[in-house]
């Protein structure tokens, strides 16, 4: 990954005038029919999450309606699809209704398929961002954004009320752009009626657990990547990425001669299954192909919702640890509504909202003092020793770690 | 009749002639435009990154990849300049390295062989035997082709898994259990599940176009049935089998989610790495790998096209061979043997095709506790009724899928026929035109998706304006571009094999080129046109990557998008949506075949 200044990626700074669609009269009909849009390059970006083809379905209210200052502002919040549309529960709908009932604003969700990468591409192509903030950033996302773009995609959070309540250990952005709003833990989930999962990483190498573990591809799945990172945290990286930052990661096992690649070689010899996505792995595990799977520590919350036998959904924290994946929200540097976006961020940190997000996203709050039902902790398990890599540790390393693992694991 | 009237009639006739004479050219131009807008330009915006890094042209990334044993195995050593003799020695040694590219090709070859082996008997059955429901079965053969990989994975684990149907059946029969999951075998069988239908469908169309009178002539001249088959039928069916094989190779060479779902990372393919590199924004390396994929796939396609061009056979008409009944008319060995073979095949097909699909249906009806339930379908109804505006709902997904697929098919048919006509002539540079026309099959879908984002959704700057396109029309064009090569590949062999004298006499009688295509050539290759239409429809229904990229509004999602969205901890809701997709597409194929079935001509 290169961070060189590149000529092709430069954009002229744009004045943030309100967008106008200026379609030549003759072409208007045909263009609308073909889902084409034409707009002045020096105008502000599209406000509606890349809505390129609204055949007159543009409802941002800023076209032609002469509302002056009284107009209801629209806040466009970009996020990943599961945040607003999961088959079980998702916080999107509740957040939209709650926010709109409190503030005179309309909240619009944007969920491009490539998630953060979509906005990186947008910024690089000079097409305007079209959203005010992003909800669901991880440490890795930030590292990728900063490695790819010369300009700032995100602005500093600045004056966001309630930010102090965010737990110290979760604040993952050294530049204070992303504000954490929840966190999840990646751990082992096992079927207690079929096996007793080992207590430690080393235990997975025992003969009795041969072929017992299903993990995911670290190159394509966030749980797979979290588990790989956890093994690096435990065994060290053997200096694989030292050309990145000149520092080798010391493993928690205290053995400098044994790194994560050694561990994975043994795991592979013990027949670990590395499948593609989390869905692949979880459904194969549900069908009983293997008794242990890499998943989330909140598994029992879902199992309980479905009335499943909790004995078949046991959580194991290897060495009492789990890899923490805090999620943050950050303001786009290009936001049309920065003040409203900051208001939304404070709203997301309120105790009541924090509790709702945790329950509806099936995760853990990012702040102290979130309002959660007293029995929430019975099903949503937290490790006594959460581990996670900091921004600085991941920067310049994570790609090399994944690549080295790929080369060893698939060296056919 | 006055002179003025005569003049007007003459003018009208001339106008019509003019339109007809130029129809072909106009269609060719439109086809090229669609290809440039929805394929070439977008793909080029990404592929260019293979050689342009940070604004400077470089071949470094190429060189790195080509000489990397991880990608090219022993071949990489040859490319990095090691002596050929040493490399040949390691190639012959048992622990040789194939590299990711080599392994990808290897599994694609295996998958192709398996697909042909499983597809041919089906074609034989459908083309040569008459039984109730034959036409419906023929329409349904293509259904597996459109299933999202997650559905296939669910069906396969339930069928071939540790606790699967197959093992249960084997145990019941007192046979040893099989450990199929997460092996190369499972991946190959899944690829055959996807692609054998393609082989079967293309071959059936060709077999049904064999002219019975040619066989009768051969027989009356004293050839035995075997000899007649070898000399008359086989030469016409053979190219179609190769078409199916070439397409299968290209598809399985670019295989992506299914290898990891059923095999595991040890069986990693090039496309999996392309996905990872794109996700991590390592575009240069991703583009190089995509170009490698493109080169291999195009080489296979072009080799096949050369064969096809050299082996064009002459067909004069289409009075299909009479079909035999499945019940043997007389209990002779010659009658019994092929039917016994078909009976064995029926069992195999039952395990490979029917069992996984039945398992998917069962999964959609099974609750978390293993009992039968309709709760997943209730979820669909519930989501339809109460889903928020920004959530994906089943009915719009069905409606969009059908609308896009219908429009894409109607667009892909003329595109495919025009290109088929252009590529059945001989001229210098035809290979180039062939390659250009087939390229959409050979480029990585992930790369095309990224290109569509950059090229269409973000648009291009022209003189201070930014022109962008997204939404329904863009999706339809992108789908048509993905589907039209199938129309070309099914229609082209038949057109090439047509007796030129038919066309020439029509032309001599004053018909324009376009008119000849419409009234003479298309009717003669009609079964192939219908097969091509079914493929174009199937490609559109099953397409995912371009659709999510281009559905820039919140309302252009399709059934595969809905399936993906409904995947949760339990796959019930997703499988229920998958069954909806199964039923809707199955019905659509039956309708397509019925529409195209008996009336010939347009």
UniProtKB/TrEMBL annotation, chain A:
Signal peptide range in chain numbering: none
The alphabetical list of record keywords is: Signal
Composition bias, kind Low complexity: at what positions?
Answer: 22-38
Q: Does the keyword Signal apply?
A: yes
The residue ranges flagged as biased composition, category Basic residues, are 11-21
Database matches in SUPFAM superfamilies = Periplasmic binding protein-like II
Do you know which Pfam families this protein is assigned to? SBP_bac_8
Which domain of life, per UniProt?
Archaea
Region ranges (Disordered): 1-72
The annotated regions of Basic and acidic residues compositional bias extend over: 1-10
User: Compositional bias (Acidic residues) spans?
Assistant: 57-72
Q: What is this protein called?
A: Extracellular solute-binding protein
Q: What organism, scientifically named, is this protein from?
A: Halorubrum salinarum
Automatic annotation (TrEMBL), chain B:
Key words, A-Z: Cell inner membrane, Cell membrane, Membrane, Transmembrane, Transmembrane helix, Transport
Question: Membrane topology type, per the record?
Answer: Multi-pass membrane protein
**Membrane-spanning residues:** 21-41, 105-127, 139-160, 180-200, 237-263, 283-305, 342-365, 402-423, 435-457, 463-487, 524-551, 571-592
Which CDD domains does the record cross-reference, listed alphabetically?
Answer: TM_PBP2 (cd06261)
Location within or outside the cell: Cell inner membrane; Cell membrane
Task: Tell whether Coiled coil is among the UniProt keywords.
Answer: no
Q: Which PANTHER family match?
A: INNER MEMBRANE ABC TRANSPORTER PERMEASE PROTEIN YDCV
This protein's GO cellular component annotations are: plasma membrane
User: What superkingdom does the record give?
Assistant: Archaea
One Gene Ontology BP term is: transmembrane transport
Q: What is this protein called?
A: Iron ABC transporter permease
List residues of the Cyclic nucleotide-binding domain: 51-110
Q: Domain ABC transmembrane type-1: where?
A: 101-304, 398-592
Instruction: Tell me yes or no: is rRNA processing among this UniProt entry's keywords.
Output: no
Tell me the organism.
Halorubrum salinarum
């Amino acid at each position: 990954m290169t961070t060189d200044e590149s000529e092709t990626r430069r954009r002229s700074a744009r004045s943030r005038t309100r967008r106008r669609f200026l379609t030549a009269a003759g072409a208007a009909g045909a263009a609308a029919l073909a889902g084409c849009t034409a707009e002045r390059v020096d105008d502000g970006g599209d406000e509606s999450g890349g809505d390129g083809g609204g055949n007159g379905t543009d409802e941002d209210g800023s076209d032609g309606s002469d509302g002056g200052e009284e107009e209801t502002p629209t806040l466009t919040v970009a996020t990943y699809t599961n945040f607003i549309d999961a088959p079980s529960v998702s916080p999107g709908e509740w957040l939209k209704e709650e926010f709109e009932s409190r503030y005179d604003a309309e909240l619009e969700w944007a969920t491009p398929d490539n998630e953060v990468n979509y906005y990186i591409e947008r910024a690089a192509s000079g097409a305007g961002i079209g959203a005010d903030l992003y909800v669901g950033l991880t440490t890795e996302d930030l590292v990728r954004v900063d490695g790819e773009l010369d300009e700032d995609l995100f602005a500093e959070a600045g004056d966001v009320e309630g930010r102090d309540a965010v737990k110290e250990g979760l604040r993952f952005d050294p530049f204070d752009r992303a504000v954490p709003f929840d966190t999840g833990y990646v751990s082992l989930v096992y079927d207690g009626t079929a096996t007793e999962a080992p207590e430690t990483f080393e235990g997975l190498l025992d003969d009795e657990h041969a072929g017992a573990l299903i993990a995911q591809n670290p190159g394509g799945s966030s749980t797979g990547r979290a588990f790989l990172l956890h093994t690096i945290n435990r065994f060290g990286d053997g200096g694989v990425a030292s050309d990145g930052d000149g520092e080798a990661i010391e493993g928690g096992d205290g053995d400098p001669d044994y790194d994560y690649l050694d561990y994975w070689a043994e795991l592979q010899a013990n027949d670990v299954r590395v499948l593609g996505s989390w869905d692949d792995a979880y459904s194969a595990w549900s069908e009983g192909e293997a008794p242990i799977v890499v998943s989330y520590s909140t598994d029992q919350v879902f199992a309980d919702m479905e009335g499943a036998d909790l004995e078949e959904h046991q959580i194991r924290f290897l060495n009492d640890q789990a890899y923490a994946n805090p999620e943050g929200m950050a303001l786009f540097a290009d936001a049309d509504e920065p003040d409203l976006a900051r208001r939304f961020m404070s709203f997301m940190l309120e105790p009541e909202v924090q509790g709702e997000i945790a329950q509806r996203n099936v995760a853990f709050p990012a702040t102290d003092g979130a309002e959660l039902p007293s029995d929430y902790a019975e099903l949503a398990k937290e490790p006594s020793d959460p581990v996670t890599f900091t921004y600085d540790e991941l920067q310049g390393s994570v790609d090399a770690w994944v690549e080295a693992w790929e080369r060893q694991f698939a060296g056919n | 009749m006055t002179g003025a009237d005569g003049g007007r009639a003459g003018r009208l006739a001339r106008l019509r002639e003019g339109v007809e004479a130029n129809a072909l050219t106009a269609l060719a131009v439109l086809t090229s435009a669609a290809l440039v807008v929805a394929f070439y330009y977008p793909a080029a915006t990404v592929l260019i990154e293979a050689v342009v890094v940070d604004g400077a042209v470089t071949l470094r990334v190429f060189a790195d990849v080509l000489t990397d044993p991880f990608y090219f195995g022993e071949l990489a050593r040859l490319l990095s300049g090691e002596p050929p003799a040493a490399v040949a020695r390691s190639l012959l040694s048992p622990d040789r390295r194939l590299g990711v590219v080599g392994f990808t090709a290897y599994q694609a070859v295996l998958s192709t062989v398996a697909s042909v082996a499983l597809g041919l008997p089906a074609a034989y059955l459908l083309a040569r035997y008459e039984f109730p429901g034959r036409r419906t079965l023929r329409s349904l053969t293509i259904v597996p082709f459109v299933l999202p990989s997650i559905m296939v994975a669910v069906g396969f684990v339930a069928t071939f898994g540790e606790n699967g149907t197959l093992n249960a059946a084997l145990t019941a029969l007192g046979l040893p259990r099989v450990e199929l999951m997460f092996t190369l075998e499972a991946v190959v069988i899944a690829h055959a599940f996807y692609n054998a239908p393609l082989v079967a469908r293309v071959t059936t169309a060709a077999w049904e176009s064999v002219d019975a009178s040619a066989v009768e002539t051969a027989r009356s001249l004293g050839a035995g049935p075997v000899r007649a088959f070898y000399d008359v039928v086989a030469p016409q069916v053979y190219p179609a089998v190769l078409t199916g094989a070439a397409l299968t190779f290209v598809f399985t060479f670019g295989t992506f989610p299914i290898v990891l779902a059923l095999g595991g990372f040890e069986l990693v393919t090039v496309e999996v790495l392309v996905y990872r590199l794109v996700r991590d924004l390592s575009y240069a390396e991703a583009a190089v790998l995509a170009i490698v994929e493109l080169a291999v796939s195009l080489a296979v396609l072009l080799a096949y096209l050369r064969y096809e061009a050299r082996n064009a056979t002459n067909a004069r008409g289409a009075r299909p061979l009479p079909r035999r009944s499945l019940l043997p008319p007389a209990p002779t060995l010659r009658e019994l043997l092929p039917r016994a073979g078909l009976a064995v095949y029926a069992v195999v097909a039952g395990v490979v095709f029917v069992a996984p699909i039945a398992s998917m249906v069962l999964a959609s009806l099974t609750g978390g506790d293993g009992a039968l339930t309709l709760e997943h379908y209730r979820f669909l109804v519930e989501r339809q009724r109460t889903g928020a505006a920004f959530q994906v709902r089943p009915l719009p997904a069905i409606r969009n899928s059908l609308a896009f697929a219908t429009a894409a098919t109607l667009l892909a048919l003329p595109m495919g026929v025009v290109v088929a006509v252009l590529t059945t002539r001989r001229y210098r540079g035809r290979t180039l035109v062939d390659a250009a026309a087939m390229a959409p099959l050979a480029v990585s879908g992930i790369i095309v998706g990224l290109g569509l984002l950059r090229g269409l959704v973000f648009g291009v700057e022209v003189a201070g304006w930014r022109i962008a396109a997204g939404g329904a029309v863009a999706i339809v064009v992108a789908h048509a571009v993905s589907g039209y090569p199938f129309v070309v590949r099914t229609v082209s062999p038949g057109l090439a094999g047509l007796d030129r004298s038919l066309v020439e006499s029509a032309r001599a009688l004053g018909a324009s080129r376009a008119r000849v295509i419409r009234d003479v050539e298309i009717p003669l290759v009609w079964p192939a046109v219908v097969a091509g239409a079914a493929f174009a429809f199937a490609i559109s229904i099953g397409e995912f990557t371009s659709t999510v990229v281009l559905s820039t509004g919140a309302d252009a999602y399709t059934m595969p998008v809905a399936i993906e969205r409904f995947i949760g901890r339990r796959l019930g809701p997703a499988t229920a949506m998958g069954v909806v997709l199964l039923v809707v597409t199955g019905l659509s194929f039956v309708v397509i075949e019925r529409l195209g079935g008996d009336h010939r001509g347009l």
